[in-house]
Write a structure and sequence with these properties.
This protein has about 350 residues and is an alpha+beta fold. It has eleven helices and 15 strands. Helices cover about 30% and strands about 25% of the residues.
Length: about 350
């Protein structure tokens, strides 16, 4: 299965490719009911253009302009906005999917609470096309913020960045992103909401940080945490690999400080969501130790960018999730002939 082709190059070679490139357009937009339905091949940018003038947004982001809504759902690709608006599991209201045997499933309804039994639509989040082809997706809408403000804190190293992040996390209520960038070292916090609330919280955070000795603070209406996240991930080249490390909060600090010390590795941390992104040469000797250290801390490592089809699936995932047995059993039931990719 292929949407915009921004992530499918990492999947195993397939005999046939089913593209959603022609499945485009908004099928229903209901701003007053807070949902929008789109065909799976619609790009995120096309959806944003359709929502212009409505005062509403779907709080998703992607570093790649060709990324499709179906691809974002299938790869479970969440950005920093998740800490304020929720992840795809919270935003997805319903899907239409075609199973390998040709059956069509319509799962969920465009309401916040619509399921009395198993919430089967969530099976397709992160399935990477291994369970079926998404054709239509319905997502939750949110009002656009009246004001978005960014606090940029210059810090000497990762330890000071983490100290500042802990102070901010004890305060924030309007935060739509809290990230650390390792080159140069800086901490960025984005606040959004009503102007009075944003101004008050920004002043409160700045005062608390200054009282704790973190004084290199600037405010800006541009360069949000989502922009910084997109810029980092968009920099993946043909001879580099990018990993997403999902780490328990208790281990984020030590893991981040370890990765900052690696000479051939660039790092970026989504501190509000417990995610660390690493970019390194494709054949870097640091790759395996980093993956092993992440898994030993109770986290996971997932390759999200790299040279096309150079790595085996076990090298891309670096771990086997607790749900692996259930997923395999479900695929055996829905796809006994093994038509779909392994995901």
């Amino acid at each position: 299965m292929q949407g915009g082709g921004t992530k499918s190059s990492l999947l195993p070679e397939a005999g046939n490719v089913v593209s959603t490139a022609c499945l485009k357009g908004v099928t229903e937009c209901a701003p007053h009911d807070l949902y929008v339905s789109v065909r799976a091949g619609t790009t995120l940018e096309e959806l944003r253009q359709e929502l212009e003038g409505t005062g509403m947004q779907v709080p998703l982001a992607s570093p790649w302009p060709d990324a499709t809504i179906g691809g974002i759902v299938s790869s479970n690709f969440n950005g920093p906005l998740r800490c304020l608006y929720g992840g795809l599991r919270d935003l997805l209201l319903s899907v239409t999917a075609v199973l390998p045997d040709g059956r069509v499933l319509r799962l969920g309804r465009p309401f916040a609470k619509d399921v009395a039994g198993y919430d089967l639509k969530k099976l397709f989040i992160g399935a990477r096309g291994s369970l079926g082809l998404l054709t239509d997706v319905t997502l939750r809408l949110f009002p656009l913020p009246r004001l978005r403000q960014n606090l940029v804190i210059s810090v000497p190293d990762a330890a000071e960045g983490l100290r500042g992040a802990k102070i901010i996390r004890d305060i924030y209520r309007l935060c739509s992103g809290l990230v650390f960038a390792g080159s140069p070292c800086s901490l960025v916090c984005t606040l959004e909401g009503l102007p009075e609330e944003v101004d008050f919280e920004a002043s409160l955070i700045a005062d608390r940080l200054s009282a704790e000795g973190l004084t290199g603070i600037t405010q800006s209406a541009e360069s949000s945490t989502t922009d910084a996240w997109c810029n980092f991930l968009a920099g993946t080249g043909p001879e580099t690999t990018t990993f997403r490390l999902g780490i328990p909060f208790r281990a984020v600090g030590s893991m981040l400080q370890e990765t900052v010390r690696l000479a051939d590795t660039e790092c970026f941390a989504d501190l509000a969501n417990g995610l660390v992104y690493l970019r390194m040469p494709a054949e870097s000797a640091s790759r395996r130790p980093v993956v092993e250290a992440t898994c030993s801390n109770g986290g996971y490592a997932l390759m999200i960018g790299g040279p096309a089809r150079r790595f085996r699936p076990e090298e891309m995932y670096g771990y086997e999730p607790d749900s692996a047995a259930l997923t395999k059993a479900l695929r055996a039931r829905w796809d006994p002939r093994g038509i779909m990719v392994t995901g």
